[in-house]
Amino acid sequence: MPLLNLMQRAGGWCYHAPLTMPWMHWQSLVDFLVLAAVFYAVLRWARQTRALRVILWIAGVQAASRVAGWLDLVITSWVLSGVSVLLVLLLLFGFQSELRSALLRLDSLVRLGLKPAVKAFLPANRAIAGAAFRMASEQTGALIVIARNDSVRELVSGGVPLGAEITPELLSALFRKDSPLHDGAVIVEAERVVRAGAVLPLTHRQEVPAMFGTRHRAAMGLAERSDALVVAVSEERGAVTLMHGQSIVTLTSSEGLADRLGELRTQPPAGRPGAIRRLLFQDLRYKFAALGMAAAVIALSVLSTGTTVRAISVPVEFVNVPPGMAISSQSPNRIEAQVRGSRWLIDSVTESGLVARVDLRRAGQGMQDVRVRPDALNVPPGVVVERVNPPGITVRLVRKLP
Q1: pTM of the predicted protein model
Q2: Fewer CB within 10 A of the end CB, N or C, for the chain?
Q3: How far is CA 65 from the centre of its chain?
């Protein structure tokens, strides 16, 4: 007879569920990764806008408010909470364009790049490049926006809808000084001019080259808010500049501009290994920052035991029942757990459903007295199980009938 069966009823609670370290659940790892992903998404969305500083201030003030609450600094915690609310209102009402741009870029963020190649729009690229350098030689200013994946319609205003084929003659005519549309930008989608005379948002960056005027500031403003390519032709200097993201490149020939547009507008199909490689190694500083912020939140949750204590009725769930065995009876079906933590954490635990998981992988046939340890409850970091009642349950295992 197995030693376990000899000890079953020798007195007290003999069979113990395997020990596990507190908070070492796979759910905690998933929570950490999800939190880090959210922080990374926020940082990427806001990295090129003034909203980033406000978002970081909100996170810092809210964290300080939590720390003040844990230290029983009631007034300080209340003041900091009020400041964070005011910062959220400032973000919503003062940075609407930045938030709208961030939402428009959501689709670009979550894509893994698994998409087929698109054509390079060679005739359109040559027409744009030829028109740009023709206007540069004539000292005619121009602003040409070439949309790619991100829509720019929410970022530009004004202008006249067109829908014409791209030709050097059309572009030159639109930017003639006697044209009513020459001060705005031309919007190109695929191989069509869809709008002319559009107004672009200005950049908020401080490090703007001294020779850039309003036209180039507008080109920078749109390029940093979307993935569009913007060709700016300087009226005073006769220079042709291509902007995308935060990259600013001055071209010296029509062929060079056409080739560069072809490279940037062509999207070769990316296999799964290449997409995963970019997902892992792109924007490493933002990924490390997001991991650090998530680790700080988890650490603060773990280090703070909270001041709220609550008794919760928890159902018992048996896992790893031996093959060929079935549970014929158990007593009781639920236990009472006393938990301690922050009120909002305990509320979230109550709403999500707390379960006491008891491992029966080493149990044998017959009556089993199983101790329910506090670490059998799937509580998140920051919540502590102080005791359970009753401390054990009785379960009867029988062999299944063939």
Answers
A1: 0.49
A2: C
A3: 24
